[in-house]
Design goal:
The complex is a heterodimer. By secondary structure, chain A is mainly β. Chain A contains no helices and eleven strands. Chain B is mainly beta. Helices cover 0% and strands 50% of the residues of chain B. In chain B, strands 2, 4, 5, 6, 9, 10 and 11 form a seven-stranded mixed β-sheet that branches. Chain B starts with a strand and ends with a strand. Classes of the chains: A mainly beta, B mainly beta. Chains A and B meet through strand 5, strand 6, strand 9 and strand 10 of A and strand 5 and strand 9 of B.
């Protein structure tokens, strides 16, 4: 069963515009959710985790249990934000990743 | 430096020729896993290991084997590679998945099977 859904494979926004990358999950327990980012030719790395309620590089993500969503947001996109973004869910023994959203920020 | 190291980074092989991709981590992580990354399909888990001598299938295990004889190493074995296993492979390690667990990824291995 698909546990993490990222409906947008590709997303383009202009520099300075707001950006939102969508993530929905399916899990009956208490979810642990993360966003990972993969810049060009680099390995995946953790961007942020819901438990920390942090803002990293201007990005935030709020867990909405009612809508089972964990959308990633940034008010003003920068060119260096262009990358592949993966939403991830952990259960007791596994990580589940979404299919990823490729974000392009147009100068 | 804490890291996950995969080798080789690039590999071209022929159908049916056995190969092994190595993965090593120096963070004393219990959990290790292998993923393949394909366009439009994202990251799909192949196998994972909760600890030494404990391995389990992920979502796409067919055609792959793994072993976990030591805590730091988790090699991926393709006994008889086929062209549909052409992909970008990532190894990852972490403490046991759960609250606040971050997965650390290797640099990736790009495999082409002709």
């Amino acid at each position: 069963a698909q546990r993490v859904t990222q409906p947008e494979k590709l997303l383009s926004v202009f520099k300075g515009a707001p950006v939102e990358l969508k993530c929905n999950y399916s899990y009956s327990g208490s979810p642990e959710l993360f966003w990972y980012v993969q810049y060009s030719r680099q390995r995946l790395q953790l961007l942020l985790r819901h438990i920390s309620r942090e803002s990293i590089k201007g990005f935030t993500a709020d867990l909405n249990k009612g809508e089972t969503s964990f959308h990633l947001k940034k008010p003003f996109a920068q060119e260096e934000d262009s990358a592949m973004y993966y939403c991830a869910l952990t259960t007791g023994n596994q990580f589940y990743f979404g299919t990823g959203t490729s974000l392009t920020v147009i100068p | 430096e804490a890291q996950v190291t995969q080798n080789p980074r690039y590999l071209i092989t022929v159908t049916g020729k056995k190969l092994t991709v190595t993965c090593s981590q120096n963070m004393n992580h219990e959990y290790m896993s292998w993923y393949r990354q394909d366009p439009g399909l994202g990251l799909r888990q192949i196998y994972y290991s909760m600890n030494v001598e404990v391995t389990d299938k992920g979502d796409v295990p067919e055609g792959y084997k793994v072993s976990r004889k030591e805590k730091r190493n988790f090699p991926l074995i393709l006994e008889s590679p086929s062209p549909n296993q052409t992909s970008l492979y990532f190894c990852a390690s972490s403490f046991q998945p759960g609250t606040n667990t971050e997965a650390f990824f290797g640099q990736g291995t790009r495999l082409t099977v002709v």
